[in-house]
Amino acid sequence: MEHQQRSQPHLSPHGDTEDIVALLAPRLAYFAGVARTEHVTRAARELRVPQSTLSRAMVRLEQDLGVDLFARHGRTVSLTPAGRTFLVSVERALAEVERAAEEVRADADPAAGKVAFGFLHTMGSETVPGLIRAFRADHPRVRFSLVQNYGEAMLERLRAGELDLCLTSPVPEAPDLVARRLDEQRLRLVVPADHRLADRKRVRLAEAAEEPFVTLEPGYGLRRITDDLCREAGFRPRVAFEGEEAETLRGLVAAGLGVALLPPPAVPRPGVAELTVTAPRAVREIGVAWLDGRPDTPPVAAFKKFLLSRRGSLLPD
């Protein structure tokens, strides 16, 4: 049976997509149910809605689309060619909604859900693997989606809803975020092994005022801390190179390109000497941050509680 074009469709072919979705979405499952059973009464029973409600919904759907989706034969119905075309896309859309619902339910599962966790590059070799290993001792099925980046980039991903939690430095202060200090990490002045200061164990930062510095790029938390410490020591660092990885900077120090303020390495690196800075006090605070007001799924709440329990013992000795 050929479908007939209705004379006064409710939807303009050039209407806003949001308007079309708002009109059609609530009726798609009803339409699929009627199409599957080819019987309004049976479909209403399966869908657990009054038959009159279902009948009105199908009539209104056809009116909004401006086409006949069903050919009616007493109490039974059959799909028109337009109805069959529409059903293919409707079933695909409903399957996608079901898949998405299953995914978010799985992510929120207390035993096997997912935590989207961000952390600094300098915490990726030891600190974060150790944390996850310790957490998974009691939560072996919890999954992690990990992002390694610099602080500002991770905070933007928190705000975008792409991360649940992140370890960052400095500890952020922003009205839309909650942040808790967890630990502090001493920074060292790293110099080439043949440098004039290399035989020293301790040094005042002002003693490196005339040295070229290799640093992280602007926007990185460690770069901001380096600039602030040098300013406190009475000078502005002369930057010879800006990079993205602390270990790259350590390698460039070994090559004689300059000196750097860096956290301790995971493994001692040859070609450099690492000096304790006595003045000013050279440390960086490490904290955990999350978006204020965002409800936690059970696995996120469990991992957040675990991180907060590590205050003062977050970093390896």
Overview of this protein structure:
It contains nine helices and 13 strands. Helix content is 38%, strand content 23%. The longest helix is centred in the N-terminal third of the chain and has 27 residues. With 317 residues, the protein is α/β, with parallel strands linked by helices. Strands 4-3-5-13-6 form a five-stranded mixed beta sheet, with helices on both faces. Strands 8-12-7-11 form a four-stranded mixed beta sheet, covered by helices on one side.
Query: What coarse outline follows from CA principal-axis ratios?
Result: elongated
Poorly predicted residue ranges = 1-9
Q: How many strands?
A: 13
- Secondary-structure content class: alpha/beta
Question: H/E element string?
Answer: HHHEEHEHEHEEEEEHEHEEEH
Number of DSSP helices?
Answer: 9
Helix content: 25-40%
Q: First CA to last CA: what distance?
A: 78 Å
